[in-house]
Write a structure and sequence with these properties.
- This protein is 32% helix and 26% strand.
- By secondary structure, the protein is α/β, with parallel strands linked by helices.
- The two termini are 15 Å apart.
- The mean pLDDT is 96.
Length: 333
C-alpha cells in the first residue's frame, strides 16, 4: 500500500510517498481501506515535532479518516466487512489502508460522502465539548469565534446557532467573513494581521467591543491564540468563559488581572483527552452531532479536495492559514 510518510522533522516538503506492507488488524481492530483524510492544524505541527505527541518515525500524518472496512479482527462485533466508517485516529491517516481500534470508528450515514465523513468528528467533536462542557453556552448568550472561517471556527458558528446563541465571527478577510455569514453567523468583523503593538492591540479590543455590544461575549472560542487573545479577553462579559482551543498564531500570555476584573474563567479545551477519559460522554456528544447533521443544522464544509499525491500541498495550505472550511485528501476513489 502507499503511505505519505514523515521520515524527518520538517515542513510538508519533507513528506514522501512510499510503499509499505498492508497492515493486519489485531484483536479489537478492523482494517479500513481509507477513502478520504481530512487535514487539520495538528498535522502541520506533528510533522515539525511541535505537537504534544511525537510519534516514532516514519509515520503518516492525518488524524481524521473515512473509508470501508476490509477485514475484522478478533472480538469485533460492532462492525462488519463492507461497512462505511469514519473516525479520528490521532495520526496515520494518509495511507491507503490502516488497522484501527473499532471503538474509534462510527458508521458513515447513507447518502453522505467519504469527504464529508472525514471532516466531521474532530472539528465538531472538539467544538461541542468546548461549548457545552467547558463553556456552558446557553440560549440567548453571545458567542465570539476567533479564526471563524477555519474548520473548528465554522463548526463553532453552526453549533452556536444550533444551541441558540448570537454568534459574532472574527476573521482576517472579507472572503472569510462571507463564508461565516453563509454558515449562519449573526455578525462578522475583519481584524488585521498580527503582530500588534500596544495601540493596535487596544484598537482590536475596541473593535471586538463594538461588534459584541455593551455586555461583551459570554463565551469566547479561541482556536487562534497569539496577539488576538488579550484584545478578545478585554471584550469578555461579566462571568464570561474564555475557551482556549489552539495556538496557530502563537501561545499568548494573558494578564490575569483581566480575569479578576471581569470575574471570568479561562478554560482549556483538550478534546482528545476528554474523549479518552470519558468515552461515554464523548459518545453522547457524537450521537448529538449525528442528529444535528441529519436535521441539517450542521454540515461539514469541505472547500477543497486534494489527490493523494498532493497531500503535502494540503498540509502546506493549512500551515499558511489560507484554508476556509475543511481541506480533505482523497486517498482512493
Amino acid at each position: 500500500m502507499r503511505a505519505l510518510l514523515s521520515t524527518a522533522p520538517g515542513g510538508p516538503d519533507t513528506l514522501t510517498i512510499e510503499e509499505l506492507p498492508d497492515p493486519v488488524p489485531g484483536p479489537g481492530q478492523v482494517l479500513v481501506a481509507v477513502k478520504a483524510c481530512a487535514i487539520n492544524y495538528p498535522d502541520v505541527l506533528i510533522i515539525e515535532d511541535k505537537y504534544q505527541f511525537k510519534p516514532q518515525r516514519p509515520f503518516a500524518p492525518g488524524g481524521e479518516i473515512s473509508g470501508v472496512v476490509e477485514a475484522v479482527g478478533e472480538g469485533v462485533t460492532t462492525l462488519t466487512i463492507g461497512d462505511r466508517v469514519l473516525g479520528t485516529i490521532g495520526h496515520g491517516g494518509l495511507v491507503e489502508k490502516i488497522a484501527v481500534d473499532a471503538a474509534r470508528l462510527y458508521k458513515l450515514p447513507e447518502g453522505r460522502s467519504f469527504e464529508e465523513g472525514s471532516a466531521l468528528v474532530l472539528t465538531y467533536g472538539t467544538t461541542i465539548h468546548a461549548l457545552l462542557d467547558r463553556g456552558h453556552l446557553k440560549a440567548g448568550e453571545t458567542l465570539l469565534v476567533l479564526g471563524a472561517a477555519g474548520g473548528v471556527g465554522l463548526a463553532a458558528i453552526e453549533l452556536g446557532k444550533a444551541f441558540g446563541a448570537r454568534v459574532v465571527a472574527a476573521v482576517s478577510s472579507e472572503e472569510k467573513a462571507q463564508a461565516c455569514l453563509e454558515a449562519g453567523a449573526d455578525a462578522t468583523l475583519v481584524y488585521g494581521r498580527a503582530p500588534f503593538d500596544k495601540d493596535a492591540s487596544k484598537a482590536l479590543a475596541d473593535q471586538f467591543k463594538a461588534a459584541l455590544g455593551p455586555n461583551g461575549a459570554d463565551v469566547i472560542y479561541d482556536p487562534v491564540g497569539g496577539d488576538y487573545a488579550e484584545p478578545a479577553l478585554r471584550a469578555i462579559a461579566w462571568e464570561g468563559r474564555y475557551l482556549v482551543v489552539g495556538f496557530p498564531a502563537g501561545i499568548p500570555r494573558l494578564p490575569l488581572n483581566l480575569t479578576l476584573l471581569k470575574s471570568c474563567d479561562v478554560c482549556g479545551v483538550f478534546w482528545g483527552a476528554f474523549a479518552a477519559r470519558d468515552p461515554q460522554a464523548n459518545q453522547a456528544h457524537v450521537d448529538h452531532l449525528f442528529r444535528l447533521w441529519a436535521d441539517g443544522k450542521i454540515q461539514p464544509r469541505v472547500t477543497q479536495v486534494f489527490e493523494f499525491a498532493d497531500g503535502g500541498a494540503a498540509i502546506a495550505k493549512m500551515a499558511a492559514r489560507g484554508a476556509i472550511g475543511k481541506l480533505v485528501v482523497r486517498v482512493a476513489a
